[in-house]
């Protein structure tokens, strides 16, 4: 059995589930330096979204009907198309690079909004307890119980798809997760003497929440953010795939997958390659989050 | 010494409403403290001594369903009736507090200097840099070596005794007029205990602040306090000056507590003298002396009427029906902790 898993069980926590074991094994495979690779991948993604022109070999919007549906590695008069071209002869790799910006922007922004709401609710609920807590947590449960994806589709088809509405709908998917984690931590920390001591020092409630509770839950929040960005990315791709997310001419990885779907039989790369990139990104974010979590957990 | 009291607690009641019914943790406690005086509050766990101290600052968990009545007059205002904002000025500003467990009473993620500075900025309106340098001075004053360096460190790099020193410097940062120390030495080992008590005593004298020391250990009180009061089941059972109490403890409970402390004279018998029975879980509400079931002197009256506080000497009261008779024949010829005048 892997080291990480053994540690968890020896500390008296319940035996890890299969899911945990798989993650544990993946994290072990990374070794002690593996996370650098993960971070490097993310740095590349961020760089691609800031300066896509540096990475994109072709203009992502230039159509070239003579170079339609070229497979990966084939060349046209414009030069090599590393990942092939789509039905209008646009370079797939360049389109993926350009799509990175909006994909990341939506995922990060929506996660941060969701985290903001969840952290606030979690702190308030956990610290005050009682009625406040019950109200906020029931709200979260109601939200979780609703098939949010269906609600999202409904909303987006009623109001018309736009990035703005995505930034309203996607945070709703994640805030209850943040609220639950932060609440549990706040409940535990509330009993610590240093919180009582800060009350006895005359700190106001907002100071206690902001300066004493929040920093003590911050590491958990950061780890959760990283993992949730991946999940939001998937959700956005799902909505875009269904046609209720981002609309052309804007592009995201999810939209690329959706655009390639009718051509799956003739040009597999249009669907599969953006999908692979999306999958790898989500995996990297998950691994990184869980790796940090395991590390900080082991450190105490 | 000034005759105007600094703190006047009058008929303080604290009741927790719990799922299994109300618990009267403090049941009609009254006492006063003069500026600069030192008072030891002694009792077993659950006697209401910590709850009394917390009630002074209304320091209860937000989730506790607690009812406080009575009056706590501090410096002319009733702390039980002022609003939250003014109470925050009193907390830390005029009344400082130290807790039992120095390992958990500091924020683990904030440099200790910063935690002290926070209080200084809050109550004394200092700027960030003023507060930072004052924090270093405070650390030096409580005997922390290399204070500039240590101020930037996290609590985890301090030992238990050192953390309690930090906690003390935090509590006295704003020159409070009253320092409440809730079992400040219980979690420390004996040599460190003595140092901390010495420090508290020294600070009390140099700062001219009053000290309220809550403990279950008579040795701690003997080393630090001028006055003692003994609590049992939420009530004060005996109040006296230190020397007086050790010489002529009146209440049978106090006597029992004093006998519990191991003494050299008893070493040959090799035994302690425990008080039989258990303290009641909920004090108050009864119509008898709460200690009667465990008291070897109890008479019928003890089981039918609550004893009032009876004066048995100058500034010495005892809540016992037998107080007057017992005062006559207390002939304990000096206790090992009796202070030499």
Characterise the protein shown here.
The complex is a heterodimer of chains A (300) and B (341). Chain A has helices at residues 3-10, 18-30, 34-50, 52-55, 92-128, 130-145, 148-159, 163-190, 193-200, 205-241, 253-260, 269-299; strands spanning 75-76, 79-80. Chain A is an all-alpha fold and 300 residues long. The longest helix of chain A has 37 residues, at 92-128. In chain B, the strands form 2 sheets. Chain B has an 8-stranded mixed sheet with strand order 6-7-8-3-9-10-12-11, sandwiched between helices. In chain B, strand 9 and strand 10 form a beta hairpin. The A-B interface holds A 127-130, 190-194, 196-204, 207, 211-212, 215-216 and B 57, 59, 61-63, 88-93, 96-97, 99-101, 104-110, 118-119, 122-123, 167, 170.
Task: List the uncertain runs of chain B.
Answer: 331-341
- Oligomeric organization of the protein chains: heterodimer
Rg value of chain A: 22 Å
Number of strands of chain A: 2
At the fourth CATH level, what is the homologous superfamily of the largest domain in chain B? P-loop containing nucleotide triphosphate hydrolases
* CATH architect. name of the largest domain in chain B: 3-Layer(aba) Sandwich
Largest sheet of chain B: 8 strands, mixed
Structural class by SSE content of chain A:
mainly alpha
* Overall pLDDT score of chain A: 83
Q: Which chains have the largest interface? A: A-B, 23 and 29 residues
Strand content of chain A: under 5%
- Largest sheet, spatial ordering of strands of chain A: 1-2
How is the main sheet of chain A built?
A: 2 strands, antiparallel
In percent, how helical is the residue content of chain B?
25-40%
Order of helices and strands of chain A: HHHHEEHHHHHHHH
């Amino acid at each position: 059995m892997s080291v990480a898993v053994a540690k968890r069980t020896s500390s008296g926590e319940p035996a890890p589930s299969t899911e945990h074991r798989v993650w544990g094994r993946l994290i072990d495979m990374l070794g002690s330096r593996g996370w650098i690779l993960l971070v490097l991948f993310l740095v590349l993604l961020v760089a691609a979204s800031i300066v896509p022109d540096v990475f994109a070999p072709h203009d992502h919007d230039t159509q070239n009907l003579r170079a339609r549906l070229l497979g990966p590695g084939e060349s046209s008069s414009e030069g090599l198309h590393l990942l092939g071209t789509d039905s209008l002869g646009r370079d797939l790799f360049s389109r993926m690079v350009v799509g990175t910006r909006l994909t990341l922007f939506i995922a990060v922004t929506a996660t941060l909004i969701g985290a903001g709401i969840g952290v606030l609710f979690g702190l308030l609920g956990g610290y005050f307890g009682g009625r406040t807590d019950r109200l906020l947590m029931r709200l979260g449960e109601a939200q979780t119980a609703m098939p949010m994806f269906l609600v999202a589709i409904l909303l987006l088809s009623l109001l018309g798809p736009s990035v703005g509405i995505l930034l309203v709908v996607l945070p709703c998917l994640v805030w209850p997760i943040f609220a639950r984690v932060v609440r549990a931590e706040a409940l535990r920390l509330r009993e610590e003497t240093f919180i009582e001591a800060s009350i006895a020092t005359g700190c106001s409630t907002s100071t206690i929440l902001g300066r004493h509770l929040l920093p003590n839950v911050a590491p958990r929040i950061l780890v959760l953010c990283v993992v949730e960005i991946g999940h939001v990315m998937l959700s956005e791709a799902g909505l875009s795939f269904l046609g209720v997310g981002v609309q052309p001419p804007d592009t995201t990885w999810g939209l690329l997958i959706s655009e390639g779907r009718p051509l799956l039989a003739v040009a597999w790369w249009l669907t599969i390659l953006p999908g692979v990139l999306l999958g790898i990104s989500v995996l990297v974010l998950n691994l990184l989050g869980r790796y940090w979590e395991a590390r900080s957990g082991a450190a105490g | 010494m000034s005759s105007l009291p600094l703190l006047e607690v009058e008929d303080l009641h604290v009741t927790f409403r719990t799922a299994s019914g109300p618990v009267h943790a403090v049941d009609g406690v009254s006492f006063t403290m003069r500026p600069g005086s030192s008072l030891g509050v002694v009792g077993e766990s659950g006697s209401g001594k910590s709850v009394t101290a917390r009630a002074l600052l209304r320091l209860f968990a937000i989730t506790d369903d607690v009812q406080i009545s009575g009056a706590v007059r501090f410096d002319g205002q009733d702390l039980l009736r002022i609003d939250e904002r003014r109470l925050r000025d009193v907390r830390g500003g005029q009344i400082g507090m130290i807790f039992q467990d120095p390992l958990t009473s500091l924020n683990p993620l904030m440099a200790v200097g910063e935690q002290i500075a926070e209080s200084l900025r809050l109550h004394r309106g200092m700027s960030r840099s003023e507060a930072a340098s004052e924090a270093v001075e405070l650390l030096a004053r409580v005997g922390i070596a290399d204070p500039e360096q240590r101020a930037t460190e996290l609590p985890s790099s301090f030992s238990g005794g050192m953390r309690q020193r930090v906690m003390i410097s935090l509590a006295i940062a704003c020159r409070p007029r009253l320092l409440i120390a809730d079992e400040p030495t219980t979690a420390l080992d004996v040599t460190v205990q003595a140092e901390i008590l010495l420090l508290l005593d020294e600070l009390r004298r140099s700062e001219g602040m009053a000290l309220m020391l809550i403990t279950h250990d008579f040795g701690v009180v003997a080393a630090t306090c001028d006055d003692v009061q003994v609590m049992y089941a939420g009530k004060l059972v005996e109040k006296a000056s230190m020397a007086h109490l050790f010489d002529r403890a009146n209440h049978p409970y106090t006597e029992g507590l004093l006998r519990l402390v191991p003494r050299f004279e008893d070493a040959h018998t090799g035994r302690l003298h425990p008080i039989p029975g258990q303290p009641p879980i909920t004090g108050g509400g009864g119509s008898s002396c709460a200690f009667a079931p465990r008291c070897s002197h109890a008479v019928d009256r003890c089981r039918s009427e609550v004893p009032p506080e009876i004066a048995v000497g100058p500034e010495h009261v005892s809540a016992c029906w037998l107080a007057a008779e017992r005062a006559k024949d207390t002939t304990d010829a000096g206790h090992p902790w009796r202070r030499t005048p």
